[in-house]
Each structure stands twice: as C-alpha cells, then as structure tokens.
Design goal:
Blueprint lengths: L1 E9 L3 E9 H6 L1 E3 L9 H11 L10 E6 L8 H12 L3 E4 L4 E10 L7 E10 L13 E5 L1 H5 L11 E9 L2 H17 L6 H9 L7 H6 L5 H9 L25 H14 L8 H17 L3 H5 L3 H11 L4 H14 L10 H16 L1 E5 L5 H20 L7 E3 L12 H10 L3 E5 L5 H16 L7 E6 L6 H4 L9 E4 L2 H16 L6
C-alpha cells in the first residue's frame, strides 16, 4: 500500500506528512490507542454513517495519525540520516521497520534572498503487505479521528472516500508515547469552538440556503433543526415568563433561544417522546405552557438557567403518565435542591428519576388499626410474605411494606399529612378492614380518589378481613366496600397464601431461573 503527501514541519516543530488517501486505507494502516483515547460511542458512529451518506455537506478536517521511526527508546543511524537529508533538502529513500519513505525535493530560490532555497518535498510511504498479516501491529496509531475511521467499515462504498490525513513522525517510541498525548490534548482543548447559538442561527435564519426540506432530511441537520426554526422566533416569553431564564446563557451573555430549542427538540426526538410529525410542535408548545405554570409556583425554578432541567420537565410532561410523574418530579427537584445546579444531562436526570418512580411503585402502604394484637400479627404476615417474594423472585428493586407508626425520618411531622404523602407515593395499599376503623376507611377512600383523579381503571389497593374477629363480616364491612373483592380468612396460613398470590399478580412478577 502507498500513501502520498507532502513532508514538512508543522509550526516549525514536528515533522509531518500531509496528504489525501482513501478512508478505508487509513483505517487499515492504523490502530486505536486505548492508552489515552476514549472508546467508540455507538450513537456518534451512527451519526457519522448518516453524515457520510449525505454528499451535499460532506466535509471534515484531517485525520491525525502518529508513527515512530524506531520502535525502541533511541534513534538509529537511519533516523539521523532522515533528519539530515530533510534539513539539506536532498532526495532520499529510507527503509524503516514497517514502511519505506521516499522523498523527492523541488528547490526554488526565495524572492527576498536568492541565496536561500525553499524546499517542496513530495513523499511516498510504501507499506509492505506483510505488515498486515498475522498479529503485527499496524504501522500508525490514531491520535485524532478514531470515530471517523471507524465508520469506514460500516458500508462498502465508504472505504473509497478521499480523506485528508496528517501523519506525525516521531524519532522513537518514547517520543511518540510522550508527544502523541500532548497533541491529542491540544487538538481537543486549545481550539475555541464557535458559539452554538451563533452557528445555529446561521442555519435557522437562512431559509434560502437551508430550506425546510433540507433541515428535515439532510444528515447534517434533522427534524430538531426544522422544529427549532418553526418556534424560536415565534415564542412569546411575555406569556412564558417563568421559564424564560432557561433560555438564557449561564455565563450571562444574553439569550440562547435557537440553540436551546435545538437541544430540547433533539433530546425529545432522541428519546422518542416526540416524533417527526408536524403535531409535535403543537404538543411541545402545550407542554411548555404547562411547565411554565409549574415553574411559576417556585422562585427557585423561575430563576434557574438549567435547560437540561427544563428538558426533563418537558420529557415527563409529554409522557402519558404525566399526571402522576410530573408532580412527583416537581417535589423531588425542589426537595433535593436540583435548581442549584447550572447544568444537568436531561437523559441522565430522567433515567435516575424513573428509577426512583419505579422504586416508589414497589412501596406497599399498610392501612390498619393500631393497638390490636390481631392486626399487629396481620402486619407481621404481610411483612414476611413480601420478604419471601423479594427472595423468590430475586427482585433488584425490592417490594417494601410500610406503616405510618413505624416511620421515622428524624423529624416531627403532622401524622395526617405523612399518611397521605405515604399513600401518594406507594404503589399498592393493603387495607385491613378488621375492626372497621374509620382511619382505614378514610385512607382507602383517599387511594380510591387518587386513582380516579389519575384515570386509573384498576384499583391499587387490596382489602383484607379477619373473619375470626366478628360473627357477621358482611355487616362489619361498610356498605361502599362490600362489593369490592376482599381476602377473608380465619387462619394465618390462609392470609399468607392469598396475599402472596395477589401481590405476585399485582406486580406481574415472573420467576427467575
């Protein structure tokens, strides 16, 4: 294999060979250096595949590779000859371990001083086929551009794409190990990227150069660009004042409307909360209005510039279970001072809270009469059965039984408020109708009202009654609850068996082999 280019020093320092080659060839002659580079990101690789398939805007900067001339700690006579002939502007052909470099130099006198020559050095790097056989290391390592090169094998025609490259030549393996990391760092840290707001506006405001159909279909853009264009100049923040700060720069450099809308839409589309449908814009605007009303209740939310937090609120608002999850998320954000954080990744934030919600659904609130030996024994049976289920079904998120008189968070609280809060946060309520206590009926009624408010068709409660306590259970149970299924029992084992069957069915548990 041959690579052709021009040999010279970069910024008067490192010797480099710059040229063009097929993407597939650059992939085949180089290896990923796991000692300092990040692993491939699958989503980024797919974005590159889509980008390479779109010929209209296909461009990226050169791939940076590195090669040591000697794979030892010292340089040899060949390396010394290489640098001498380079400095003198002479032609040469020198063989190194994994490749041969042939240089042809053209000389021209400088206009300002005819005694001095300018050199133009054309080089060919020849790599023998034997290098690619067996377990031989590739002749070059990848300093920058690993993701771009990884896409070369995604589709057959990618390997022939003409690609700019730069090969940095190091005297020996020690120099390569030390300097390749510095070069990687400088490439990724010294440049100052163009402000996202500025670059986004350049695209969204130029309908002629970038028509709507291009924004929708081109791999360089996507529907999030199209939706952002439709909204960012058409939102009235006089009506959405409570969320306005989330569209302002954390650094205090003014509004970031275009880029914030772009990020919000991209996140919601990636998470499949929104689709490519035109109706998505209407749904998004409605959700913004709802979240604005929620933000208006908290001065901390109103002052927050965290667009990641706003994205998470929109994510939950646009979900079908929004009536349950949004109020819980709101309380969680405020109680945990999430508004104090300048930026949060919305994907991570929603993932964490979904786990919290899942954990809450595994809480079982036991509504029961207190101070009775019988009902205390019932609770012990419930507690034992739930622990057996956790073990039998190997639950990572375990089911947990709770009763208000055993709850202790280290604070003084209004017991009625705590009961209602515990019921709101539980997935299942077990109501013990034995002794027909008013507090139990009140708590069951509260759960029934919550279910109806949330439009839940099934009941999230299970009623139990110890028939050994009363001769006429039907008269003991209040009229409104007589027609609702109950577990009636006289012996503890009856309760244990039926409880286990009902809880397993309620949570839809499957045995793990």
């Amino acid at each position: 294999m041959e690579l052709k280019g021009v040999l010279d020093t970069s910024l008067g320092n490192f010797l480099c060979i710059r040229g063009f080659a097929k993407l597939g060839d650059l992939h085949d002659v180089s290896d990923f250096d796991e000692s300092f580079q990040r692993n491939l990101i699958k989503t980024h690789k797919q974005e590159l595949v889509d980008f390479l398939n779109d010929n209209k805007f296909l461009f990226f900067p050169e791939v940076i590779l590195g090669a040591e001339l000697v794979d030892s700690l010292d340089e040899n006579d060949t390396v010394k000859t290489f640098y001498e002939k380079f400095g003198l502007g002479e032609n040469f052909k020198l063989k190194f371990k994994n490749f041969t470099i042939q240089c042809r130099t053209s000389k021209t006198r400088k206009k300002e001083d005819t005694r001095v020559f300018d050199f133009s050095r054309s080089v060919t790097i020849s790599i023998p086929d034997s290098v690619f056989k067996g377990k031989n290391l590739k002749p070059f390592s990848r300093i920058d551009g690993n993701h771009r090169l990884s896409a070369a094998t995604a589709e057959p025609h990618f390997k022939d794409i003409n690609t700019p490259f730069c090969i940095v030549l190091f005297r020996n393996i020690s120099e390569k190990s030390e300097y390749s990391r510095v070069i990687f760092h400088n490439i990724n840290s010294k440049s100052i990227p163009v402000d996202l707001e500025h670059s986004t506006r350049l695209i969204l405001e130029n309908n002629k150069a970038y028509p709507d159909e291009d924004l929708k279909k081109r791999a360089s853009f996507g529907h999030h660009y199209y939706f952002a264009r439709k909204l960012y100049k058409n939102m009235d923040f006089d009506l959405l004042g409570s969320i306005h700060n989330a569209f302002k720069s954390v650094a205090g450099k003014g509004e970031e409307l275009a880029s914030t809308f772009l990020k919000l839409f991209k996140f919601l589309l990636d998470e499949k909360i929104l689709t490519d449908s035109e109706n998505s814009v209407r749904r998004f605007k409605h959700a913004l209005t709802e979240i604005n009303a929620l933000y208006s209740k908290s001065s901390n939310l109103k002052s927050s510039k965290n667009d990641g937090l706003l994205a998470a609120f929109l994510y939950f608002q646009l979900r079908q279970d929004n009536e349950v999850v949004v109020p819980s998320f709101y309380q969680w954000v405020l109680s945990n001072h999430i508004t104090e954080i300048d930026y949060l990744n919305p994907k991570d934030l929603t993932k964490v809270f979904d786990k919290i919600i899942h954990s809450k659904k595994r809480k079982v609130f036991v509504s029961m009469p207190f101070g009775k030996d019988k009902t205390d024994n019932h609770y012990q049976i419930i507690y034992r059965v739930i622990n057996e289920i956790n073990i039998d079904y190997k639950l990572k998120v375990t089911i947990k039984a709770e009763r208000v008189d055993w709850f202790n968070d280290g604070t003084s609280y209004n017991i009625n408020d705590k009961i209602l809060a515990m019921i709101e946060n539980c997935g299942l309520l077990i109501g013990n109708l034995t002794y027909a206590r008013p507090n139990v009926y009140h708590e069951i009624g509260f759960m029934m009202g919550r279910d109806r408010l949330l439009g839940q068709l099934g009941n999230n409660f299970l009623l139990i009654l110890d028939e050994s306590v009363t001769e006429d259970a039907d008269k003991t149970v209040g009229f409104n609850l007589r027609g609702i299924k109950q577990i009636r029992f006289k012996e503890s084992e009856e309760l244990s068996k039926e409880l286990k069957e009902n809880i397993v069915k309620f949570y839809g548990l499957q045995q793990v082999n």
